[in-house]
């Protein structure tokens, strides 16, 4: 009975994980001395203000690591692609305008009844390959079941147990075509193109499964508001996932944290990757470190909003202050 209740709350939680916060609800952080207080209440105006100057770096021994300009630029490309992989909103990629396709050398997409995956190659001076996985499709109730699936399964040839639903979201009927596209893309650069895997919410969890299967390419994983995907197990410690290369973003809005990234019950799940907490200043970014499995409270639906992630990634990108310092949450 308790289990049923838990299941019901998980599905409810994911059912309501759509766009709950409108952009005007984005909280404004306390102003720094050298900011003018007048026009900063509009997020798009804050971009312009912020462009003029970069905040001071925290004291050097507080910085755990820096996120490079190249990683931020690729994070922005990845987020733009993430918006295309949600079939319910953008439609098939064949319908994109030439302007929408312009930034990509290749752009391929597959769908089955409840999953969608996209592979693209960027046209930047150092091109990269991107694979994006769709988050929960808000028009497809069956897709919620992928999140609520409490069973676990091993990712083939690996030491990782993961939630069955996310594994199914990766090993789709178009899996072979997907692999061929990724192989071709990575091979299309001299040496190898770097590979970025990512997604929002459920899509982020599927990207982690992908990173285990594609570990021979040493991919970088960038996820936003993703729930726990690996299952804690002595027999399957999951060394085949690389948490060092996983930027696991979660939003904080006022005092609340993304409820999906900090989901309870977690059915023995564990978070991998380096947690990165986005807030309204995004300077410095805070981290709980590698394999930060904490369930932060209080939790809220507001911080799970995809548009909030989008505006914060955009803000970091538009501000162009590189590299981006990351400090430990312990330094708060
Ligand atoms: C991070 O970057 C800043 C600015 O370039 C630099 O002063 C600092 O030493 C770097 N810290 C680390 C840990 O890389
Ligand atoms: C991760 O966190 C969850 C929720 O707090 C907990 O149930 C689980 O045991 C933790 N797993 C590990 C490996 O620490």
TrEMBL record:
Q: Which residues form the Fungal lipase-type domain?
A: 132-252
Q: Which UniProt keywords apply?
A: Signal
- Gene Ontology BP annotations: lipid metabolic process
- Gene3D superfamilies on file: alpha/beta hydrolase (3.40.50.1820)
Q: Which InterPro entries match?
A: AB_hydrolase_fold, Fungal_lipase-type
Does Signal show up as a keyword for this record?
yes
**Secretion signal span:** 1-23
- In terms of superkingdom, the source organism counts as Eukaryota
Pfam families in UniProt: Lipase_3
Record flagged with keyword Signal: yes
Q: What is this protein called?
A: Fungal lipase-type domain-containing protein
Species: Seminavis robusta
């Amino acid at each position: 009975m308790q289990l049923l209740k838990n299941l019901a709350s998980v599905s409810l939680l994911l059912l309501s994980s759509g766009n709950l916060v409108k952009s005007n609800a984005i909280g404004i952080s306390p102003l720094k001395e050298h900011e003018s207080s007048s026009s900063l209440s509009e997020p798009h105006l804050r971009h312009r203000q912020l462009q003029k100057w970069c905040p001071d770096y925290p004291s050097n021994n507080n910085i755990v690591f820096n996120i490079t300009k190249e990683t931020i630029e690729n994070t922005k490309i990845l987020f733009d692609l993430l918006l295309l992989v949600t079939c319910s909103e953008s439609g098939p990629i064949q319908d994109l305008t030439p302007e929408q396709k312009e930034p990509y050398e290749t752009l391929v997409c597959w769908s089955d009844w409840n999953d969608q995956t996209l592979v693209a190659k960027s046209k930047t001076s150092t091109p990269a390959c991107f694979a994006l996985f769709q988050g929960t499709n808000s028009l497809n109730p069956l897709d919620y079941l992928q999140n609520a699936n409490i069973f676990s399964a091993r990712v083939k040839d690996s030491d990782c147990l993961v939630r069955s639903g996310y594994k199914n979201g990766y090993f789709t009927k178009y899996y072979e075509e997907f692999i061929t596209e990724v192989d071709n893309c990575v091979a299309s650069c001299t040496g190898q193109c770097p590979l970025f895997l990512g997604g929002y919410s459920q899509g982020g969890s599927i990207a982690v499964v992908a990173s285990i299967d594609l570990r021979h390419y040493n991919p970088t994983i960038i996820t936003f508001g993703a729930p726990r995907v690996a299952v804690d197990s002595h027999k399957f410690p999951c060394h085949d996932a690389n948490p060092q290369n996983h930027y696991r973003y979660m939003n904080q809005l006022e005092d609340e944290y993304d409820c999906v990234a900090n989901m309870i019950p977690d059915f023995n799940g564990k978070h991998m990757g380096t947690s990165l907490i986005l807030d309204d200043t995004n300077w410095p970014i805070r981290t709980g470190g590698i394999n930060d499995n904490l369930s932060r409270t209080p939790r809220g639906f507001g911080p799970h909003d995809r548009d909030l992630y989008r505006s914060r990634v955009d803000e970091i990108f538009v501000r162009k202050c590189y590299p981006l310092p990351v400090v430990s949450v312990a330094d708060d």
